User: What shape does this take?
Amino acid sequence: MIFDIIGKFGRIGVFTKQRSKIVDETKRQAYLNALEITQWEARLPHLKTADSFEVEFESPPAMQQPQAVEQVNDDRDAFMPAEPSVPAVVAPAAALNWDSLRYQVKQCHACDLAESRIQTVFGVGNQKADCLIIGEAPGADEDRQGEPFVGKAGQLLNEMLMAIGLKRESVFIANILKCRPPNNRDPRPNEVVACQSFLQQQIQLIQPKVILSVGRISAQNLLGSQEAVGRLRGKVHSYSAQQIPLVVTYHPAYLLRSPLEKRKAWDDLKLARQQLVK
Assistant: This one.
């Protein structure tokens, strides 16, 4: 069922033939229609990968919504990371194991969030995913269900993924924190540090082709930056010594409050998708 909370992302076009992990043509077209997206024709059919594509914009419509003033403060404003979040030492992938890592997260009491959580939110999705999505921290719905992005923001994220031809189960979704901060407050620096190794090990195990950083707190910690999302998005960053392409975009919760920014988020999604077909 199509969620009617999606705003207009602009006029764009259609994908070439998709692999099994991409939604079939009928479902994909239904999602695009729900987003009020017009069709486009793919070019460069000689690309090696079957699901490769290149997006071409049509001329903008005669009447457009006024451009929103660039938001220097994203969905939460007060958080400033104490220092870059990338640890100096990361355990080698050969030493990691999904089951033992999940157990370690479940048993973690490294910070006070263990006292207020209902359960840990480890992450969900394809453990061999090409695309890793990293948000900030679980909310109330996620704390109850033990899965990231399951509320209204999660519904919007699902539709955003569908719009670029990806199923939720084909990506891996995780957060900077594995436990919900009380009252959805900003994560504290010591809490981020306590969860660092868990996220780093997930990245090592997945070895994604691209990381999509969702929201200001995620972007600031992954990049060791204090810049706002508006200044970090629109480009491909290089993450860690592995130089994993990283694209920053707005948090879906922020987009629900600021629908004029959805066109920018669409551009970010396209940029992330381009990294998957290289």
User: Anything to note?
Assistant: Residues 139 and 184 are 6 Å apart (CA to CA). The two ends are 32 Å apart (CA to CA).
